[in-house]
């Protein structure tokens, strides 16, 4: 038995996923290595690197409308925003073990149609499908759909919970012998009946991922999700969020291991700590250009701030809580509180508008030598701030190459990350039981 094998039973396993960097300011667009956001070769490259690194899954975001700012289409959106399940179905043919996670709205889809597409992906991939459940109460996005954006903020989780439950009823409607049974669901948001035309998925249910930090979101995660895409990146915030969500599971008859919490994070590597810090600072300056800084500030203030100097102080005027200058983005629900926090930070550290935006909008980032990054990531898992990480690279599509080559071997050396896939399905990778009909687990 090797030293690595002796250590492994005493260490919590780490889960890793790869997020395809989308049309936002995470990507360093002016880097000459920055590639297409829609060319299939970009998706293939990142997915294959993630699979070579033995990642649990590949994660795709989705946008249902081109975002606008002050009546103009947001610059980055003109590159295109392809439909995630279509991309993942194609990736199923060029990968073998990597999980395939699609972001799909529970507000602007229907249970039968989406359950069918997800079950099909699970069959085509041999049990690797996952659904990131998102919601929207945004009337701007809703204009693309017959219903429009009529849902109140709290009501969207009610619909989402019923949506997930209905989809699971459909996946459970086939017998163990492989024959369809009639189903009928009559609830507040959906009334459907008939026979589901796709056999039960290889995983029983595709893995359900959820992101949401409100009270309703945390409760929905505890009741229905297999994975939480968390935004809590610091150790202290992560431990508090982890403990709160895991505590809620018991009310639904679930164990702490039934739900994996995985925050989205970035990383910057260097041969020395100083080099990594210098690279990280340069990346953040390129991610938040002077124009981007003002755009983000306008989203909070709800005002035209184009006359302000990005290298000058924050506006003295207060935000307009009712005004909208940006559409199709996640909005701040308490702009006055956000502005107060930003002002306090700016005044305490003497930060300009651009510096304030850089400091307040960045994801948790692991910065250092490969060994320092591996050690710090392992610490987060060991101290129960997370079960793993969804890595959001700064480059499309090669932003994970260096991490897989230089950090993953060190995580394996520590005995906290797998050295091979132990099963064919995403549930195998995540250590999740395969559900049997009616929500009982094997």
TrEMBL record:
<feature type="binding site">
    <location>
        <position position="153"/>
    </location>
    <ligand>
        <name>FMN</name>
    </ligand>
</feature>
<dbReference type="InterPro" id="IPR011251">
    <property type="entry name" value="Luciferase-like_dom"/>
</dbReference>
<keyword id="KW-0503">Monooxygenase</keyword>
<keyword id="KW-0560">Oxidoreductase</keyword>
<keyword id="KW-0288">FMN</keyword>
<protein>
    <submittedName>
        <fullName>NtaA/DmoA family FMN-dependent monooxygenase</fullName>
        <ecNumber>1.14.-.-</ecNumber>
    </submittedName>
</protein>
<comment type="similarity">
    <text>Belongs to the NtaA/SnaA/DszA monooxygenase family.</text>
</comment>
<dbReference type="GO" id="GO:0004497">
    <property type="term" value="F:monooxygenase activity"/>
</dbReference>
<dbReference type="InterPro" id="IPR016215">
    <property type="entry name" value="NTA_MOA"/>
</dbReference>
<dbReference type="InterPro" id="IPR036661">
    <property type="entry name" value="Luciferase-like_sf"/>
</dbReference>
<keyword id="KW-0285">Flavoprotein</keyword>
<dbReference type="GO" id="GO:0016705">
    <property type="term" value="F:oxidoreductase activity, acting on paired donors, with incorporation or reduction of molecular oxygen"/>
</dbReference>
<dbReference type="InterPro" id="IPR051260">
    <property type="entry name" value="Diverse_substr_monoxygenases"/>
</dbReference>
<feature type="binding site">
    <location>
        <position position="214"/>
    </location>
    <ligand>
        <name>FMN</name>
    </ligand>
</feature>
<dbReference type="Pfam" id="PF00296">
    <property type="entry name" value="Bac_luciferase"/>
</dbReference>
<feature type="binding site">
    <location>
        <position position="157"/>
    </location>
    <ligand>
        <name>FMN</name>
    </ligand>
</feature>
<feature type="binding site">
    <location>
        <position position="103"/>
    </location>
    <ligand>
        <name>FMN</name>
    </ligand>
</feature>
<feature type="domain" description="Luciferase-like">
    <location>
        <begin position="34"/>
        <end position="381"/>
    </location>
</feature>
């Amino acid at each position: 038995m090797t030293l690595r094998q002796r250590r492994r039973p005493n260490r919590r396993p780490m889960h890793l996923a790869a997020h395809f960097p989308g049309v936002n300011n995470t990507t360093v667009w002016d880097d000459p290595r920055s590639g297409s956001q829609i060319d299939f070769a970009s998706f293939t490259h990142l997915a294959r690197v993630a699979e070579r690194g033995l990642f649990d899954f590949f994660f795709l975001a989705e946008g249902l409308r081109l975002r606008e700012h002050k009546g103009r289409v947001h610059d980055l959106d003109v590159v295109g925003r392809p439909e995630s399940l279509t991309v993942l179905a194609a990736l199923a043919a060029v990968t073998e073990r990597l999980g395939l996670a699609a972001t799909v709205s529970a507000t602007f889809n229907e249970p039968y149609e989406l359950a069918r597409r997800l079950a099909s992906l699970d069959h085509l991939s041999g049990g690797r499908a996952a659904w990131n459940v998102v919601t929207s109460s945004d009337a701007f996005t809703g204009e693309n759909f017959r219903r429009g954006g009529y849902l109140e903020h709290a009501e969207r989780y009610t619909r989402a919970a019923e949506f997930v439950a209905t989809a699971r009823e459909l996946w459970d409607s086939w017998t163990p012998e492989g024959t369809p049974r009639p189903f009928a669901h009559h609830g507040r948001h959906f009334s459907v009946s008939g026979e589901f035309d796709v056999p039960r998925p290889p995983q029983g249910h595709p893995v359900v991922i959820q992101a949401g930090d409100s009270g309703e979101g945390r409760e929905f995660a505890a009741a229905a999700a297999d994975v939480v895409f968390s935004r809590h990146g610091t150790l202290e915030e992560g431990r508090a969020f982890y403990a709160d969500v895991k505590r809620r599971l018991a009310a639904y008859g679930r164990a702490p291991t039934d739900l994996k919490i995985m925050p989205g994070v970035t990383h910057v590597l260097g041969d020395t700590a100083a080099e990594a810090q210098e690279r990280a600072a340069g990346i953040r300056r390129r991610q938040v250009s002077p124009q981007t800084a003002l755009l983000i500030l306008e989203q909070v203030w709800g005002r035209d701030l184009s006359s302000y100097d990005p290298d000058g102080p924050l506006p003295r005027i207060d935000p307009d809580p009712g005004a909208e200058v940006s559409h199709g983005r996640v909005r701040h629900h308490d702009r006055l509180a956000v502005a107060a926090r930003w002002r306090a930070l700016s005044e305490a550290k003497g930060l300009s508008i651009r510096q304030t935006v850089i400091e307040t909008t960045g994801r948790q980032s692991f910065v250092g030598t490969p060994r320092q990054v591996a050690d710090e990531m392992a610490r987060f898992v060991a101290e129960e701030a997370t079960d793993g990480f969804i890595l959001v690279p700064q480059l499309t599509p090669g932003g994970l190459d260096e991490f897989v080559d230089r950090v993953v071997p060190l995580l394996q050396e520590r005995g906290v990350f797998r050295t091979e896939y132990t099963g064919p399905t995403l549930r195998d990778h995540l250590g999740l039981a395969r559900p049997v009909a009616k929500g009982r687990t094997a």
